[in-house]
Specification:
The protein has 499 residues and is α+β, with helices and mostly antiparallel strands. It contains 11 helices and 25 strands. The chain starts with a helix and ends with a helix. The structure holds zinc ion (ZN).
Length: 499
C-alpha cells in the first residue's frame, strides 16, 4: 500500500540511525572502559585547590633534535598573593647555570666525568621576548649564575593579576644530569622558566648549588603542548595525549613544576594503583615492568600511610645520570644502573623514596635550599616504613641499621647537621649521611614519642599543608600543636646539634 510503502523507509532509516547510534555508544563505552582499564581519567585528587585559584602556565614547546634546542613560548597568568605591591617578578631560569663550568651543578668534581663523558657542553637560554600585559618590559638577571630572571613591571597591587609572556630558546647541554641530553634521550628537569617564591618581602634567588635541590616554588596549573620530531616519545608530570596532528598535550593541576623526558627508544609498562595511572619507561621491557611493579607497590603503601596521592598519574623514567633518583611532580627520574637485575632491591628502595617525595615536596612544599631535611628525611623515613609494611620488622631493622643507625655513628668533619642548608655541603655522601640518615632519626624518635606514631602525624601534616608550603617554623608549630607538647628541644637535638 502506498501509505505503508511511504512509511516503511522511515522506520528503516530510524533503525539504521539507532544501530549507528548504538554502535557509536558501544564504541564510546568500550573506549571509556578501555581507558578506565588502563587507569586513565579516573582519579581526581581530593583537596585540589579550586580551578582558577592557582597561577597558570600555558607552554608551547618544540624540540629541534638537530641542534639540541627546545623553543619555549610561555604564558603565565600570575596573581599577586604576596600582600604587598610588586614592581618586580622573578622567574627561575635554572638552565642558565649550565652555561659554564664555574656555575654548572654537573661540573662538581666527583661527578664531572660521569656527567660530561664527552667533555664540557654548555647550555642556556636565549631570550627574545619578555612581555607583561602584552607590552615589552625591562628585565635582567639578578644573580651570578643567571638563574633569577627579574622582570620590572608597573606596580601590581595585592590581589591583582597579569600576564607574563616569554619567548626563548633553550640550548640543552650534552650532559648526563637531570637536565641534559644523552645520546638520543632528553631528560628535561627544571627546563621551564618558573615563578620564584616570594617570602619575607623578597623573591627567592638561590644559586644552583651542586649538592641537593635548590628549587622552591608554589603550586600552579600547567597546560603544555609539545611538538616533537617523528619517532620521539614523551613522558612527563602528566600522562600526555597525542592529538590528531601529533602534538603531545599535557595537563596537570596543583604542581610545583613541569618536567618531561623524551626518547625514541623506550620500552613502556603501564598499570594503575587506586585509580592513579602508573607508567614506567626503561631501556628494556623487564626493567620497565620492574619499575612499574615497584611504583604501584610504593604508591599503594604510601597512599595508605600518608593520605591521597596528589596527581592523576605517576611516571617513572629511567635516565642516564650518576644519581639513584630525582623527583619532580608526577615524575621520578631513576638512574640507569639501578635497572641491572642485581640492583632490583636498590631500585625498589629508590622508587619508594622518590615516590614519597610526591607527598613531601610535591603535595607539601618546603624550603629545600635551607631546610633540605624537611623533605629528604621525611622521604627516607617513608621509605623505611614502606619496607616495614612490605617485608616486615626484620627487614626494617636491617635497613634502619644501614640507613640511620650507621650515619648516626659516622664521624662527620665540621659542624654539619641535618638542619644545615644545602650550600654548606661539599660532597654528596656527607649530604646523604647527614640530611637523609641523621634526619630520618628524628622521625624514628617521634615514632616512639607520639601516641599514634609518626605516620599519623605525617598524614595530618600532609592534609594540613596540601598544595601549600610549610616553613621549618610551621612544621615545628604544627608538630607541637599535634602532639600537645613542646617538641622544639627534640628538634634542636636531632636537626641542629652537631654529633
Ligand atoms: Zn630525596
Amino acid at each position: 500500500m502506498p501509505g505503508k510503502r511511504c512509511i516503511i523507509p522511515v522506520p528503516r532509516a530510524r533503525a539504521v540511525f539507532l544501530i549507528l547510534a548504538l554502535t557509536a555508544m558501544l564504541i564510546g563505552a568500550g573506549v571509556f572502559l578501555f581507558m578506565r582499564g588502563r587507569g586513565e581519567k579516573t582519579y581526581v585528587p581530593p583537596n585540589l585547590p579550586d580551578e582558577g585559584s592557582l597561577d597558570r602556565y600555558d607552554l608551547v614547546l618544540r624540540l629541534n633534535d638537530g641542534d639540541h634546542t627546545v623553543s619555549i613560548t610561555e604564558t603565565i597568568r600570575f596573581t599577586n598573593r604576596t600582600g604587598q605591591t610588586l614592581s618586580t617578578i622573578v622567574l627561575r631560569t635554572w638552565l642558565n647555570a649550565f652555561s659554564s663550568e664555574e656555575t654548572s651543578p654537573a661540573a662538581l668534581e666527583a661527578i664531572y666525568d660521569a656527567c660530561y663523558p664527552n667533555g664540557f657542553s654548555p647550555g642556556g637560554l636565549t631570550i627574545f621576548d619578555v612581555n607583561w600585559q602584552g607590552a615589552p618590559v625591562p628585565w635582567e638577571y639578578g644573580n651570578a649564575d643567571k638563574t633569577a630572571l627579574s622582570l620590572a613591571i608597573p606596580p601590581l597591587q595585592d590581589g591583582e593579576s597579569g600576564e607574563i609572556y616569554l619567548r626563548c630558546v633553550a640550548a640543552i647541554p650534552n650532559c648526563a644530569y637531570r637536565l641534559g641530553y644523552v645520546g638520543q634521550d632528553y631528560q628535561l628537569g627544571n627546563l621551564i622558566p618558573l615563578l620564584s617564591r616570594y617570602e619575607n618581602g623578597a623573591w627567592r634567588t638561590d644559586l644552583y648549588s651542586p649538592i641537593g635541590d635548590p628549587f622552591v616554588s608554589d603550586c600552579a596549573d600547567f597546560d603544555v603542548s609539545l611538538y616533537l620530531p617523528q619517532g620521539f616519545a614523551a613522558c612527563g608530570s602528566a600522562v600526555p595525549e597525542q592529538d590528531a596532528s601529533g602534538v603531545w598535550r599535557f595537563h596537570i593541576r596543583g604542581a610545583r613544576d613541569f618536567c618531561f623526558c623524551l626518547s625514541p627508544a623506550w620500552e613502556t609498562a603501564r598499570g594503575a594503583a587506586g585509580g592513579v595511572t602508573v607508567t614506567a619507561h626503561a631501556g628494556t621491557k623487564a626493567g620497565a615492568k620492574r619499575a612499574l611493579d615497584d611504583g604501584i607497590r610504593a604508591l599503594e603503601t604510601l597512599n595508605r600511610l600518608y593520605g591521597p596521592y596528589p596527581y592523576p598519574s605517576l611516571t617513572l623514567c629511567c635516565v642516564d645520570f650518576p644519581f639513584s633518583g630525582m623527583e619532580y611532580p608526577g615524575l621520578c627520574m631513576l638512574g640507569e644502573p639501578l635497572f641491572a637485575q642485581d640492583k632490583a632491591d636498590t631500585l625498589e628502595l629508590t622508587v619508594a623514596h622518590e615516590t614519597a617525595h610526591q607527598w613531601f615536596y610535591g603535595l607539601v612544599g618546603s624550603d629545600q635550599a635551607n631546610a633540605p631535611w624537611q623533605d629528604e628525611a621525611l622521604c627516607e623515613y617513608a621509605m623505611l616504613r614502606y619496607v616495614k609494611e612490605r617485608y616486615g620488622q626484620g627487614s626494617f631493622e636491617t635497613l634502619k641499621f644501614y640507613r640511620v643507625d650507621s650515619p648516626m655513628r659516622e664521624n662527620i668533619p665540621g659542624s654539619l647537621t641535618p638542619g644545615s642548608p644545602i650550600d654548606y655541603f661539599s660532597d654528596l655522601e656527607t649530604y646523604r649521611t647527614v640530611v637523609y640518615g641523621r634526619g630520618a632519626a628524628l622521625l624514628l624518635a617521634l615514632d616512639d614519642l607520639l601516641p599514634e606514631g609518626t605516620d599519623a602525624f605525617l598524614k595530618a601534616y600532609a592534609a594540613r599543608f596540601s598544595y601549600g608550603y610549610a616553613s621549618r617554623e610551621q612544621f615545628e608549630a604544627f608538630l607541637n600543636q599535634y602532639a600537645g607538647m613542646d617538641l622544639r628541644p627534640l628538634l634542636l637535638d636531632y636537626v641542629d646539634t652537631v654529633l
